[in-house]
Inverse folding.
């Protein structure tokens, strides 16, 4: 990338390797870098650290764009992701390079001398033998380290990544800039979206340019368009502009709308397979209204993967609404930009219409407070720099109502619960959706889910993090959710054993501005107290719900135990009582001892074998049963059924064309077919 150190700048060397003239300190030369160059050189900050991670990040950037796009037109997303492995020969023929046999073997990084090879194979054989020995002795066997072989760094793997959606598509003329100009996009407004920086798709292209040199291909069509835009382009890194190879309109016979993006990049499926599948699975959890088809295609048939994540609900969260800035969240630059862009004439109109939470009378009070130089009718575009500073100062000091969370679109308790049940099949689950909070003038909502038990869940805390409905898979240790769950929740208080129980913690945060650390959108730091405390209280709310369920379960178990214990003693107890009664009956009959009234009556029945050991056994068993039943009733009326949270259920016909009825509640939807 860097062109520094060209031959013209090298000192002149003599034959002996010494400089003719004393070395002069190299003068520093002023240079500029384009954003594309900057991100190409620092691709790790956008999640393109190495080939494996780059494959993962490419998939995620494309999937997230597809989801944003389908949701923006309220279309239930249908997304197909294909990763096709391209062998070296195929790749070479794609770029028109002739395969060449190695001639000078020792030149290569993966060259091994005969001696080194023998040594390596002997060591691998020894390791395998030890493993087998340990296994035979029943000792714990460590996961065998993959055989290293002699793979050198030259063995790059190439993949064609394709992502197709049924979204909004893009305007024909906008496509080159959307994919070929770093820091361009349609999501810079104040709105909850997965994308934000105008970077992701361009990074995939930059990586493809860096690793394979191949361009990106985009097909796109918008609703009602009779053509499909096709564009093949790459990026001029130094000038940060698209370099178009082909841009044309093609027939759209099927009236398809959406986008299909294709890039060929270097990657590493072996090391990032599980991360990519995890990502897809977690995306399916937080987006159960989407349908995903994921395919990995290889020439080696048993490497192939096809997973369909079926749509589980038609209930889609509402489309997030673009909102205006909150006065407490603007800086001087932003106020100046808003003044330049506003269509409003006066200061009063400007304050009233360009910000949230400033009504007319409040705007008048603010203007009064600004001082004698200000008036409601003054032209906003005539404000001087000092006057703008005054407005900014007042914005920082005045008390404004918090922004409402109406513009946000959280996943919803229903979707979260559905996702958890679908993914983990837990024994118990609780969900909670908090009310909006505010961080630096941006509203945010935290939702949490908590599960106990389930399939494929390890003991201890299993943490699932989502931000603006994106799964976060990296930097777990530094994330606010992990830290809160580990350090700030006293699980014992809720009868949950932090190390023994299989605990699933799900936290989803949505906001108009997620304070990600870095452009890779990998985690949310633990340094924002507003977010940390909202996360803590949401998890605690779930804990409280689970505690009452756990208590009920414990009580039911104890009761069961008590009943079992009592029943266990029935034969002995009845045997002992019966023996005493028989003795007494004999004494009564032989007149050794006289009993009167009711006692005499019972003893008579014992002698006549009308009361037997079995009679006593049956009576006692019935009594234990009765006591258990009464206790259960008592328990149910005191703390049980009547206090269960109740939710109204309503009927919703999705549209008149369907012949089914949905009964919707926040926790379930029942569909009745007629
Ligand atoms: N599948 C798609 N359908 C419709 N528009 C798309 C699609 N993919 C990308 N775009 C458009 O291209 C723009 C640039 O995408 P890009 O991934 O570079 O950035 P972004 O999504 O805006 O932000 P971020 O870098 O945070 O992901 C998007 O803002 C969007 O308008």
């Amino acid at each position: 990338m860097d062109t520094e150190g060209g031959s013209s700048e090298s000192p002149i060397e003599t034959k002996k390797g010494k400089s003719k003239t004393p070395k002069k300190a190299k003068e520093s030369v002023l240079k500029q870098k384009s954003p594309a160059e900057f991100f190409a050189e620092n691709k790790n900050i956008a999640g393109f650290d190495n080939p494996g991670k780059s494959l993962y990040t490419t998939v995620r950037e494309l999937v997230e764009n597809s989801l944003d796009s389908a949701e923006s037109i309220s279309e239930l997303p249908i997304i197909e992701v294909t990763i096709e492995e391209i062998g070296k020969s195929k790749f070479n023929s794609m770029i028109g390079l002739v395969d060449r046999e190695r001639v000078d073997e020792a030149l290569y990084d993966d060259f091994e001398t005969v001696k080194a090879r023998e040594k390596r194979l002997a060591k691998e054989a020894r390791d395998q033998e030890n493993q087998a020995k340990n296994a035979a002795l029943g000792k714990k066997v460590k996961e065998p380290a993959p055989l290293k072989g002699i793979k050198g760094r030259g063995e790059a793997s190439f993949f064609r990544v394709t992502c197709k959606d049924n979204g909004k598509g893009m305007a024909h003329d906008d496509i080159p800039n959307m994919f070929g100009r770093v820091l361009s996009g349609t999501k810079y407004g104040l709105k909850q979206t997965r994308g934000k920086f105008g970077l992701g798709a361009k990074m995939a292209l930059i990586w493809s340019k860096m690793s394979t040199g191949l361009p990106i291909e985009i097909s796109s069509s918008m609703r009602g368009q009779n053509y499909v835009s096709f564009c093949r382009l790459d990026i001029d890194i130094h000038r940060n502009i698209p370099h178009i190879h082909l841009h044309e309109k093609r027939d759209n016979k099927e009236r398809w709308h959406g986008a299909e993006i294709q890039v060929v990049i270097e990657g590493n499926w072996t090391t990032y397979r599980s991360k990519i599948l995890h990502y897809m699975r977690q995306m399916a959890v937080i987006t159960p209204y989407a349908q995903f088809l994921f395919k990995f295609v290889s020439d080696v048939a048993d490497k192939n993967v096809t997973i369909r994540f079926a749509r589980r609900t038609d209930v889609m969260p509402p489309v997030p609404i673009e909102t205006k800035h909150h006065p407490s969240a603007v800086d001087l630059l932003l106020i100046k930009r808003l003044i330049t862009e506003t269509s409003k004439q006066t200061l009063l109109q400007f304050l009233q219409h360009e910000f949230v939470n400033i009504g007319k009378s409040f705007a008048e009070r603010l203007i009064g407070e600004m001082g004698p130089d200000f008036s409601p009718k003054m032209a906003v575009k005539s404000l001087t720099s000092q006057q703008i500073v005054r407005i900014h100062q007042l914005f920082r000091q005045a008390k404004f109502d918090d922004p409402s969370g109406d513009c946000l679109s959280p996943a919803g308790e229903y979707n979260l619960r559905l996702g958890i049940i679908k993914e983990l099949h837990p024994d118990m689950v609780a969900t909670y959706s908090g009310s909006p909070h505010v961080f630096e003038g941006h509203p945010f909502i935290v939702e949490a889910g908590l599960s106990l038990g389930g399939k494929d869940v390890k003991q201890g805390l299993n943490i699932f993090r989502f931000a603006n409905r994106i799964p976060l898979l990296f930097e777990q240790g530094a994330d606010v959710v992990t830290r809160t769950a580990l350090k700030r929740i006293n699980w014992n208080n809720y009868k949950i054993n932090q190390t023994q129980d299989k605990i699933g913690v799900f936290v989803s945060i949505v906001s108009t501005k997620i304070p990600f650390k870095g452009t890779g959108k990998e985690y949310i730091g633990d340094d924002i107290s507003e977010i940390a405390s909202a996360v803590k209280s949401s998890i605690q709310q779930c804990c409280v719900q689970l505690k009452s369920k756990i208590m009920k379960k414990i009580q039911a178990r104890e009761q069961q135990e008590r009943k079992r214990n009592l029943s266990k003693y029935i034969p002995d107890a009845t045997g002992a009582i019966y023996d005493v009664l028989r003795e007494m009956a004999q004494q009564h009959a032989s007149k050794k001892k006289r009993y009167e009234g009711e006692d005499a009556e019972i003893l008579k029945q014992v002698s006549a074998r009308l009361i037997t050991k079995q009679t006593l056994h049956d009576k006692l068993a019935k009594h234990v049963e009765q006591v258990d039943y009464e206790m259960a009733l008592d328990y149910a009326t005191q703390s049980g059924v009547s206090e269960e949270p109740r939710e109204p259920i309503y009927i919703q016909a999705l549209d008149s064309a369907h012949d089914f009825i949905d009964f919707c509640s926040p926790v379930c939807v029942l569909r009745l077919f007629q």
Notes: The radius of gyration is 36 Å. Residues 565 and 630 are 17 Å apart (CA to CA). Residues 413-541 form a domain with the Ribosomal Protein S5; domain 2 fold (CATH 3.30.230.10).
